[in-house]
């Protein structure tokens, strides 16, 4: 036998206050993470550009020095 259809059984219940607060928290955290990601990517691009410029200017001035290896005794 089917349940009697009423406004309570036919329509979904409205969101509770806890769900609304949880949704707000989730949205704020995602915004914070997106902002941090954008700042990190901008910093990475800036540092990469600076490093490449420095490597380009240093490549013509001095040759790279060879690192010394240790002698091992067996």
Task: Describe the structure in brief.
With 74 residues, this protein is mostly helical. The chain contains two helices and no strands.
Characterize the structure shown.
The termini are far apart. By secondary structure, the protein is mostly helical. The chain has helices spanning 7-10, 17-59. The chain has two helices and no strands. The longest helix has 43 residues, at 17-59. The mean pLDDT is 83.
Blueprint (SSEs and pairs):
Blueprint: H1 7-10, H2 17-59
Which structural traits does this protein have?
0% strand; mainly alpha; elongated; 74 residues; single chain
Quaternary state of the chains: single chain
Structural class by SSE content: mainly alpha
Mean pLDDT: 83
Largest sheet: none
* Number of separate strands: 0
Radius of gyration using CA atoms only: 31 Å
Helix content: 55-70%
Count of runs of 4 or more consecutive helical residues = 2
Order of helices and strands: HH
